[in-house]
UniProtKB/TrEMBL annotation:
<dbReference type="InterPro" id="IPR003593">
    <property type="entry name" value="AAA+_ATPase"/>
</dbReference>
<feature type="binding site">
    <location>
        <begin position="183"/>
        <end position="190"/>
    </location>
    <ligand>
        <name>GTP 2</name>
    </ligand>
</feature>
<dbReference type="InterPro" id="IPR031166">
    <property type="entry name" value="G_ENGA"/>
</dbReference>
<comment type="subunit">
    <text>Associates with the 50S ribosomal subunit.</text>
</comment>
<comment type="similarity">
    <text>Belongs to the TRAFAC class TrmE-Era-EngA-EngB-Septin-like GTPase superfamily. EngA (Der) GTPase family.</text>
</comment>
<feature type="binding site">
    <location>
        <begin position="9"/>
        <end position="16"/>
    </location>
    <ligand>
        <name>GTP 1</name>
    </ligand>
</feature>
<feature type="domain" description="EngA-type G">
    <location>
        <begin position="177"/>
        <end position="350"/>
    </location>
</feature>
<dbReference type="InterPro" id="IPR032859">
    <property type="entry name" value="KH_dom-like"/>
</dbReference>
<feature type="binding site">
    <location>
        <begin position="230"/>
        <end position="234"/>
    </location>
    <ligand>
        <name>GTP 2</name>
    </ligand>
</feature>
<feature type="binding site">
    <location>
        <begin position="295"/>
        <end position="298"/>
    </location>
    <ligand>
        <name>GTP 2</name>
    </ligand>
</feature>
<dbReference type="InterPro" id="IPR006073">
    <property type="entry name" value="GTP-bd"/>
</dbReference>
<dbReference type="InterPro" id="IPR015946">
    <property type="entry name" value="KH_dom-like_a/b"/>
</dbReference>
<comment type="function">
    <text>GTPase that plays an essential role in the late steps of ribosome biogenesis.</text>
</comment>
<keyword id="KW-0677">Repeat</keyword>
<dbReference type="InterPro" id="IPR027417">
    <property type="entry name" value="P-loop_NTPase"/>
</dbReference>
<dbReference type="InterPro" id="IPR016484">
    <property type="entry name" value="GTPase_Der"/>
</dbReference>
<keyword id="KW-0690">Ribosome biogenesis</keyword>
Length: 435
């Protein structure tokens, strides 16, 4: 499991500035998608020694009882309970406040490891700047500047070092694609899982010691092996799976990160909500292969069917690389074809492309359309090699490639996807200039 770092602190101490710094990625995929609904509170960080999840709890108000604020408070509380490390941010320029002390008490009660960061420390003497915060009782505070990036990398490395490294996926006895079934509450995830698994198809099942562990359930369908990554509070009760916990964003994100292929379940009887779009945005950000399952197809009339299709095309247009399935988990209709798409998406995500093949495809793309000149620069692409799988990363080498516009990057993406018939996975392009 990727460690989850949770940012906590009162408003204006610099949490979202730090969040942006921790989740910044050179990857243009998300930035390229105008209108993609990103949830500013949850992100993937790849800047440290290993990947991690970051949660910004926003303006942490533990006392709210109702409405949106209460829901945010509930998610903040669950983030604190589920986080692997709590980064407690205070404002060194304002100094220690009573609100900081209240938050400190809440964090102490959680029993989670707490790292205290005194922010806005640029140009300050570290010792005097952080002196008064020792009183909070979390040991020596780390002085950082989120805005200037000072001390952030060191703090990050320190936090990440405190967690045991994951075994590399594929090292263990799991076989086949790792599949996560995600979606907001009540769309039919547990019904779908039960339809997929059937009690006789589960090969082995161990209830882990604590709910913090992901549950991986190996199963077989049509002679093929899969491993189901448990999500968001789905637990096995007797012979069947059911949702026994409240929806947890963090568990959903963790499952997405653990999976090779994500099945995003939507409810055909409801319009696409922000929560659907946030989860979709996260799958895209994680670069996972994806299959869309529009569930409860049995329960909707033609009007609704057209409407949900239009909604998906409009609000989730950035998932057009994924296959769409209209299914009924309850009546077990459409499950076979859905799994077939999981297989195809997995194969596309794990494809291996030899350098000569990729370079030939690059040259064909260039013959059809040259990248535009940028001032005196004419970007020159020489060859391409594969830099990663799941998602496939194509690294293009050449000169002056930093001047390639996003539109041309997208053109290349489409060209590679078409050439190698990669259905169901996003593909990423990185440019490397020799200068
Ligand atoms: P949040 O409410 O905790 O998410 O805080 P924000 O990230 O929105 O930051 C609040 C204010 O503090 C903004 O005006 C930031 O520009 C500023 N800020 C954040 N980090 C730093 C820093 O390291 N140094 C200074 N001087 N200002 C900062
Ligand atoms: P989860 O919270 O996403 O795990 O959703 P559940 O699997 O618990 O399903 C929520 C509700 O939707 C239950 O009442 C299910 O019986 C119902 N449901 C699930 N799949 C279907 C379906 O394909 N058709 C219909 N009509 N109802 C379904």
């Amino acid at each position: 499991m990727k460690p989850t770092l949770v940012l906590v602190g009162r408003p204006n101490v610099g949490k979202s500035t730090l969040f942006n710094r921790l989740t910044r990625t050179r990857d243009a995929l998300v930035a390229d998608m105008p209108g993609l609904t990103r949830d500013r509170h949850y992100g993937i960080g790849r800047g440290g020694s290993r990947p991690y999840l970051v949660v910004d709890t926003g303006g942490f108000e533990p006392l709210a009882k109702e409405g949106i604020v209460a829901e945010m408070a509930r998610q903040a509380e669950s983030a604190i309970a589920e986080g692997d490390a709590l980064l407690f941010i205070v404002d060194g320029r304002v100094g220690l406040t009573p609100h900081d002390k209240q938050i400190a008490d809440t964090l102490r009660r959680s029993g989670r490891p707490v790292f205290l960061a005194v922010n806005k420390g640029e140009g300050m003497n570290r010792d005097t700047f952080s002196a008064e915060f020792h009183e909070l009782g979390f040991g020596t505070p780390y002085v950082i500047s989120s805005a200037h990036g000072e001390g952030v990398r060191q703090l990050l490395d320190l936090v990440l070092e405190s967690f045991p490294k994951d075994a590399e996926p594929g090292d263990d006895d799991e076989a086949g694609p790792r599949v996560a079934i995600v979606g907001r509450p009540n769309v039919g995830k547990s019904t779908l899982i039960n339809a997929l698994l059937g009690e006789d198809r589960v090969i082995a099942f161990d209830m882990p010691g604590t709910t913090r562990d992901a549950i991986a359930v190996p199963f077989e369908r049509n002679g093929k092996a899969y491993t189901l990554i448990d999500t968001a509070g789905l637990r096995r009760r007797g012979k069947v799976f059911e949702a026994i916990e409240k929806f947890s964003v963090i568990k959903t994100l963790q499952a997405v990160e653990e999976a090779n292929v994500v099945v995003l379940v939507l409810d055909a009887s409801q319009d696409i909500s922000d929560q659907d779009a946030h989860i979709a945005g996260f799958v895209l950000e994680a670069g996972r292969a994806l299959v869309l399952a529009v569930n409860k197809w049995d329960s909707v009339d033609d009007y609704r069917r057209e409407r949900i299709k239009a909604e998906i095309a409009r609000k989730l247009y950035f998932l057009d690389f994924a296959r769409h399935h209209y299914i009924s988990a309850l009546e077990v209709v459409g499950i076979g074809p859905l799994l077939k798409s999981v297989d195809l998406a997995y194969a596309a995500a794990m494809i291996k492309l030899a350098t000569p093949k990729l370079t030939r495809a690059l040259q064909t793309a260039l013959t059809k359309q040259q990248p535009p000149r940028h001032g005196v620069y004419r970007p020159k692409m020489r060859y391409a090699h594969q830099g990663g799988q799941n998602p496939p990363v194509v690294v293009v080498h050449g000169n002056a490639l930093e001047h390639i516009p996003d539109s041309y990057r997208r053109y290349l993406e489409h060209h590679f996807v078409e050439t190698f018939k990669l259905q169901g996975t996003p593909l990423r392009i990185e440019f490397r200039s020799a200068h």
